[in-house]
């Protein structure tokens, strides 16, 4: 697996912000390396990690905690909001899983990785997939509307309840009415295909479902499978076994929003609804020991103790055979 160092990724991807005087950039640096000749471990399906932060991103608006200060001083410590790019390298098609507020940068990143020619005005992804209706996961749809790209019938795959939320509430209903997007209903547990090489099974998970239900995905490529669950109330509250689900895939990117309950003093963590990394390390310890499934934590809150590269939390994660996902990381399936 080939990946860019996080510093290089962010210096490149955030270079477009320098005109606003927000961050420094490195000139003449491609967001991703060009696709090279295939090696035996490579396939025609690539999953690209487009972001690994919780809905508010890192740095977090109005926050000057140690992590956010670090991210403001060093763009290489910053993280975009959690999203995946699903790429069929043979058919030259790409799909974005979760439309985040960072989707402008993330769309550029995945197109650069695919290596397609850039021309004209409407270079939209071939489809968008949504997990649920929390702000970091769907509000990027606004850039496909009348004031933005103004796409025509861009396929958006989501559950029935999510589709009803978009159809019944402005400004999202305008996207549907003007046919900027075309809603396609996903059925939890039922497999569907994006290309002849990429198929997915939506998995219904418990979470704070104020406006929609919540799903994760089991993604299958030519040779491998990847489990993607960014938001879940707890592993115990799920009607599936997270141990069995991770054992049945090659790669798992899981909800790692918080490492410790001490990260948000004064708030009831049970009301926020995410399993602690500390809990996940115990729950999935035996799976990690077997070494057949690579387990990564994503959707990291700006307070997360594991963000410190040399900290005790990060060391405990890696010592137990787990990893933090990095923006720009790549997995061939």
Please sum up the structure shown:
The protein has 333 residues and is of the alpha/beta class. Helices cover 23% and strands 21% of the residues.
pLDDT under 50 segments (min length 5)?
1-7, 9-38
Radius of gyration: 19 Å
In helices, the fraction of residues equals 10-25%
Q: Helices and strands: which structural class?
A: alpha/beta
Task: Provide the CATH top-level class.
Answer: Alpha Beta
Number of helices: 11
Remind me, CATH topology? Metallo-beta-lactamase, Chain A
Tell me the fraction of residues in β-strands, as a range.
15-25%
- Mean pLDDT level: 88
CATH architecture: 4-Layer Sandwich
Per DSSP E runs of 2 or more residues, the count of β-strands stands at: 14
Order of helices and strands: HEHEEHEHEHHEEEEEHEHHHEHEE
The first-to-last residue Cα distance is 11 Å
> What is the CATH H-level superfamily?
Ribonuclease Z/Hydroxyacylglutathione hydrolase-like
Q: Enumerate the strands of the largest sheet in spatial order, edge to edge or round the barrel.
A: 6-5-4-3-2-1-14
Shape by Cα distribution: globular
Keywords:
333 residues; alpha/beta; Metallo-beta-lactamase, Chain A; 7-stranded mixed beta sheet; 14 strands; 21% strand; globular; disordered N terminus
How would you characterize the overall build of this protein?
The structure is a single chain. The chain has a single domain, classed as 4-Layer Sandwich (Metallo-beta-lactamase, Chain A), CATH 3.60.15. The model is unreliable at 1-7 and 9-38 (pLDDT under 50). The strands form two sheets. The protein has a seven-stranded mixed sheet with strand order 6-5-4-3-2-1-14. A seven-stranded mixed sheet has the order 7-8-9-10-11-12-13. A hairpin with an 8-residue loop joins strand 8 (199-205) and strand 9 (214-220). The protein is an alpha/beta fold. It has helices at residues 6-13, 66-73, 103-114, 135-138, 160-168, 172-177, 242-247, 269-272, 277-283, 285-290, 312-319; strands spanning 45-51, 83-88, 93-97, 127-129, 154-159, 181-186, 192-193, 199-205, 214-220, 225-229, 251-255, 294-298, 323-324, 330-332. The protein has eleven helices and 14 strands.
